[in-house]
Hints:
Layout: H1 7-12, E1 13-15, E2 21-24, H2 37-44, E3 46-48, H3 54-60
Antiparallel strand pairs: 1-2, 2-3
Amino acid sequence: MKLKTNKTIAKRFRITKNKKVMKRHEGQDHFNARNTGKQTRRKRRDKQMSMAHKDALKAGLPYAGL
């Protein structure tokens, strides 16, 4: 039987060629006028997730090759 990909996980995370797990920085939608410029610039970049979450991501993304 085929395994199902968790679509919410698939939309939020991506796996790089070197098996790093990347996600978009949270809090980008609104209320950004109060942020400092440093916070705004940091939100433009993707964040690397720690490998402590690897087992949970592996269950949600069975064909990602983690």
